[in-house]
Amino acid sequence: MHALFQKIAALPWDQLPQWLFLIPGLLMLLAAFAAVCLRNLIHSALCVVLSFICLGVLFMALGAEFVGFVQLLVYVGAVAMLILFAILLTPASEVQASNNPLSNFRLSSALHAAAGAAVSFLVLAGLLAAIAFSPRAANAELPAQPAAAPVALIGENLLTYTLLPLLGIAVLLTAALVGAALIAKEDSKS
Amino acid sequence: MNFFALLKDFLLQFLGLFKNLETLPVECMRLLREFLTKLGELCGITMPQWALDTVSALVLIVAILVTFLVLFALMSVFERKLLARAQNRYGPNRVGPFGLFQPVADGIKMLTKEDLVPRAADKVVHYLAPIVMVAPALMLPVFLPFGRGMVAVDLSVGILAFFALGAGTELAVFMAGWASNNKYSILGAMRAIAQMISYELPLVTSALVVALVAGTLSPTGIAEAQSGYFCGFLPKWFVCTPWGFAACVLFYIGALSESNRCPFDLPEGESEIIAGHLTEYSGFKYAIFFMAEYVGMFAVNGLLVTLFLGGYNAPFPFLEWVPTWCWFFIKLWAVALSMVWVRTTLPRFRIDQMMQFAWKFLLPMSFVTLLAAAAWYYAGQGPKAWMSPAAWSASALIVLLSYLLLGTFCFTRRHSATNRRYLFSE
Amino acid sequence: MMLQILLAISAALFALGLLAALTRRNAIMVLIGIELMLGAGNLNFISFWKFSAHPETITGVMFAIFSIAIAAAEAAVGLAIVIQVHRRLHSVDVNEANQLKG
Amino acid sequence: MDNIVSIAAVLVPLLPLLAAGITAFLKREQRGLSATLVITAQAIACATSLYLLLVAMCEDHGEPGIVHQFFNFPWLTFGNQTLQLGLVLDPLSAGMAAMVSFVSLLIFIYSLGYMHDDRNFTRFFTFLGLFSGAMLGVVLSNSLLLTFVAWELVGLASYLLIGFWFHKHSASAAAKKAFLTTRVGDMGFLIGMFWLYKASGTLLFYDNGAGCLEQTALTTLAHTLAGGMAVSNIIALLIFCGAAGKSGQFPLHVWLPDAMEGPTPVSALIHAATMVAAGVYLVARVFPIFTATGPHSSALVVVACIGAFTALFAALIAVGQWDIKRILAYSTVSQLGFMMLALGVGSVAAAMLHLLAHAFFKALLFLGAGSVIHGVHEEQDIRNMGGLWRKMPTTFLTYTVGMLALAGFPLFFSGFWTKDAILHEAHLWTVSQAPFYMAVAAAFLTAFYMTRQMMYVFFGSYRGNAAHPHESPAVMTVPLVILAAAAILMSLPATPAWPWYEKFLAGHAPSFLPAALFEPGFLQIAATSAAIVFFGIGLGWLIYGRRPLGDTDPLQTVAAPVFRALTNRLYVDEIYEATVIRGLRVLGRVMAWVDRQIVAGAVRAVAWLSFLVSAISNGMDRFLINFGFDSSCNALREYGGGIASCEGGRVQGYLRVLGIGIVVLLGLVAWLLA
To answer: Are A147 and C48 in contact (CB under 8 A)?
Structure first.
């Protein structure tokens, strides 16, 4: 008993904080998996939101607080709401009685899912293999200066090195706003 | 040295802290950490840093929770009393002196009520909704500086974090509305979300105005930027500048709307859609929603105080003997009670009017304040702007002109009653 | 080791997003899958930034910020298209919207 | 020129042009607006030109000599050469501009009444504005080029106004005739201008010593020879061609009487007072070129001879005319001949003085004639008038003043003094005395035919068909009165006792010389002139005044063939018809034949050739290109169909392939790295 206690105490506890990112990371994967598997669309969407939240927390844990909070603000505050609204605005959006005879055929449906699962599994396997065998990933060390991205530096970067992309993003967002409103607008004749 | 001697020693030190009220809370935390370290030494172990951090964080959390729950309780009774006074009634006056213990009675009542869950409801989501609602609301106050050097989490992106967590409320409202499986609930939720999204934009933009001038997203930095006086005795609060005043009014309106208070309480408008997304909630879950709403309101008011009303700074030099955290809470109460005042005074908006107000007036106006603040900053060459007539006149001109223009265009009655559209109410 | 774990998490998130995009027939779910994949990409940016030799040049962070902005725009337009498709075809099955096939 | 003056000088021609431009866009119904616009603009222009006259008068104190104020600006730059345009203000242009704008203003006002019932009232005022602006441009121009441009604009306005009643065949024909005849002269003008530019390198009149009328250029011109003649004389004669066309000098006079088809105010304004005087003004303007080789240069001799001949010739024709306006037209031609004669004998002052005086009294006569025509309901034949002095007293009195001024009745009428000055100068001309005698004869004839006209129109008994001849409204009679006053007052600056205008032109301070009246040379000429005027009027009264007049002229009974020749305008038109026009027609036929047979043949050959080429290319197209293209298209369609079946519109299918692609790519990278 005492030996166990000693063993536990001897663990590198001071390294604990830098492994805490595993909690949001694994929770994120769990939520994403649930989102893929759940049949109820709203549940799926809520799981995705949880996954997004965990991703944001993961970003914060990795030292990118700004990106983390932006992730929360954009995904939880905006994208999630858009998705939920879209689900509510497309009633019966769960694929049930489709006009396509092919999709009503269970075997075809199953084949379709199986093919998708196989492809994504292949991709996962390929990526994992690449990560595992990449010497650069294995030998990567944390830099001596812990990575930090202060807001002031980000702001300065936005207005100097990435000014052009910033302007591009501004145009893109405006165009997306207008375009989305235009596309989703009801036709006057209907 | 034994444990009791240590305890006595620290108790004496603690009592000694009351000589300086200003630093009392900060010193308390320091003393706690010291005590823990000494305690560890007594037991023969060196306290690891993370353990100290965890314990002091827990203590902080408890302190803030207690503070805001007490604020919530006091607010609920004060609001009822004030409403009653406005309506020529007495209000709660039976429980305790002047009815001050009414919240306790209410809490007991709520706890003992039956917790009803509709059969058609999505049980899990229905259960989770109050939690998702209250968690971010309780997290919000940690970013606020209650006094000089008194901030639980001093983030350099504090304001962003505040709004990012605040976004969780919409999710909770949606969950509550959808899970209840009741058309009034879902309609109320849709209304609430539409309203929140619409009013979040002016809210965030007017906060951005302050960040622009203060040059930081950290609430502490912003509060610090408003310390000091100009002309020797006038407060250097941002609300005293033309752009700051405009942004403050916009922020106040946004805060009213975000906390679903009158005249923006359409999502819960009893006469229209029963109680909106709260229709199917009862008992303690309902109380949690209620609490989250009030705590959220206090948090947003705290942000308003930090951003515009000088945070914890005293208004005049001769009042500086009052501790800074007292000033923060005085201002917080002032803003909160002004919201009660507004509630007693104004009728509820119609939904189309409300949306028009947000999109056609508040949003452009908040962009204009951004412009005015930029004009202030550049005409006055940064921090020197307080004494620059050019800065004052430029920003005042921009704000006034655009207010007149927008006001003229937005509030002329072009579409009178003939062309009403009630969004989410048909 | 830590970077590898992070990359593995990111790869798993990507694969899950791909799975959602490939197996679910609902266009909204396909969009959600794509958002997940974008999130995985962002995670990669942040991870590599954290382990880069010069984290003070915050390139990874900037990439992530822009990518989030683009993802938001993409989600808005994508969902608008979904709503319009639903209005036309009364279905959001991605396999129904195939009227332009050769 | 200083700033204000140059702005004023620009405004003078620009205002009426602008008014015309605006009026051109008005509707037919907006009569009041258009008239107001044009008349206001003209009034301002008139006031401005009077101001300019004042400026010119005040400018020349101190040093003797003419002061030319000018204002030049670049107009067109090609290569390293710049064509400059400009405006000039000197005594010549200032006096002329004041006269033109003043008379124009009066006639515009008169037109209000005369054209009152016309449908195209608005259009009429547009044309008037255009004319006035262009004419003032001619007057104020400091560049031969600008003069030419304005000159052609004046011609255009004249064409438009003569043909104003274009539905009348005679009017449109007269307009064409006027336009084409003046073009003949303008051809010479154009060539002269080119030559001048080539010889002197500038078209500006005055340019601080570099202008073509200044000493340097004149010396060059006088000393350059071309075909044995000094270039200056050739250029002067070419420019005189233009002037002769505009001013109706002998070979080119035929258009002017026909131009009377236009409305009477037009006849008064353009074909009596201003435009026809432009030729005289032009010669006066470029007078230094004429005198470059001396005061008796060959060019001047030609001008004097043609002027004297025209004066006599036109006066003769006028005797045999029946149309009230045609008589005045021929009289105009004759008077213009007098002016040319004055220029030819070297006196710009006499010519300009006669021009100014003539402008007033001829305008008066034409307007009086218009009033008469108006009064007897559009009747123009003097045989159908008579006894109108009782019916139209104001018209009669003012017309009498004009007639006496034209005839040169002694002492109180401007015509006497100015004509006298011309006769005097002609008499002093050392080259020949023939012009002098021709002028004396013309002066006699003038008095005679004017008396004839007076007798026919105003005395005797009314012979017309129209029921009630009546006096014209005030808007027409008031200008008559003003012009009559002017016709009398113009004698003041014309007497040799106070030669104000002459001194003004020469740039000297005016002086009062009563002694000049009693110089023997002057007295001799004055007495002669007075005698022939009395003789002419007396003869006219003897023949026409003592018995009732009928359809046949008393002269017809005396010498019928001569009178017939006079009535038929001495057959000049017929001669032109037989020679020039027929020749042109033959030339046209030849050209048409050439066009049809030779040019068209070539065109046809080219057409056939291209047809051939296209046929060949068509064959290539069909059998070479289409074949290959079609078959490749078919192949594309076949295989494309196969490929297209892969694009099933299934997004997830694409995505799947994309995923497989990622895996393959990963494998490839791994394989390459390994």
So the answer is: no
Residue B146's H or E segment, with its range, is strand B145-147
Could you tell me which chain A residue has the CA closest to the CA of C70?
A169
| Residue D335 to residue B205: CA distance in whole angstroms | 89
Of chain A residues 84-143, which have a CB less than 8 A from chain D? Answer: 112, 115-116, 119-120, 122-123, 126-127, 129-130, 133
The residue to which tokens 């598997």 are assigned? A37
CA distances from D106 to D160, D273, D374 (A): 20, 12, 18
A130 interaction partners in chain D (CB closer than 8 Å): 666, 669-670
Residue A95 has pLDDT above 60, yes or no: no
Asked whether D185 and D148 are in contact (CB, 8 A), the reply is: no
Task: Tell me, rounded to whole angstroms, the distance of Cα A42 from its chain centroid.
Answer: 17
Q: Give the pair of three-digit tokens for residue D125.
A: 């005022």
Whether the per-residue pLDDT at D135 is higher than 80: the answer is yes
Q: In the prediction, which pLDDT does A97 show? A: 46
Name chain D contacts of C7, Cβ cutoff 8 Å: none
Read off the tokens for D589. Answer: 């036929």
- Output DSSP code: residue D459: S
Do the Cβ atoms of D651 and C101 come within 8 Å? no
Measured distance CA(B294)–CA(B134) in Å, rounded? 10
Q: What's the first-to-final CA gap in chain B, in angstroms?
A: 75
For residue D78, give the DSSP letter: E
Tokens representing residue D291 in the block: 């005198």
Q: If DSSP codes are grouped into helix, strand and coil, which group holds residue D594?
A: helix
In this complex, whether B and C touch, counting 3 or more CB pairs under 8 angstroms, is no
Q: Do B156 and A65 touch (CB under 8 A)?
A: yes
CA within 13 Å, CB half, B62? 7
Mean pLDDT (10-residue bins), chain B, 426 residues:
82 84 84 85 77 85 89 88 87 82 86 84 87 89 87 86 87 88 84 86 91 89 86 84 91 89 74 74 85 90 91 85 88 92 86 83 90 88 78 87 81 56 54
Residue B60 CA to residue D606 CA, distance in Å, equals: 102
Shortest distance, CA C99 to any CA of chain A (angstroms): 12
pLDDT at C100: 62
CB A95 within 8 A of CB C93: yes
Which SS3 state, helix, strand or coil, does residue B300 take?
helix
Q: Do A76 and B168 touch (CB under 8 A)?
A: yes
Counts of helices then strands in chain D (DSSP H, E)? 29, 4
> For residue A100, is pLDDT > 80?
no
| CA–CA distance, D64 with B12 (Å, rounded to integer) | 119
**Which residues in chain D touch residue A100, judged by CB atoms under 8 angstroms apart?**
none
pLDDT over threshold 90, residue D608 = yes
Question: Is B157 within 8 Å of A69 when comparing Cβ atoms?
Answer: yes
Distance of CA B63 to the CA centre of its chain: 17
Q: C-alpha angle with apex B287: B286 to B290, nearest 5 degrees? A: 90
Nearest to D652 among C22, C100, C101 (CB): C22
Contact list, C83 vs chain A (CB under 8 Å) = 86, 89-90, 183-184
Q: What is the interface pTM, i.e. ipTM, of the complex? A: 0.67
Query: Which pLDDT value is given to residue C65?
Result: 92
CB atoms < 10 A from the CB of D332, how many?
30
A5 neighbourhood in chain B, CB within 8 Å: none
Identify the DSSP state of D76: E
Strand ranges (E), B228-271: 229-230, 234-235
Tokens of D132: 């006035």
Q: How large is the greatest C-alpha to C-alpha distance in chain A, in angstroms? A: 80
Strands B150-151 and B229-230, bridge-based pairing: unpaired
Distance from CA of D668 to the nearest CA of C (A): 19
> Would the CB atoms of C26 and A41 count as touching at under 8 Å?
yes
Against chain D, the chains showing at least 3 CB pairs within 8 Å are A, C
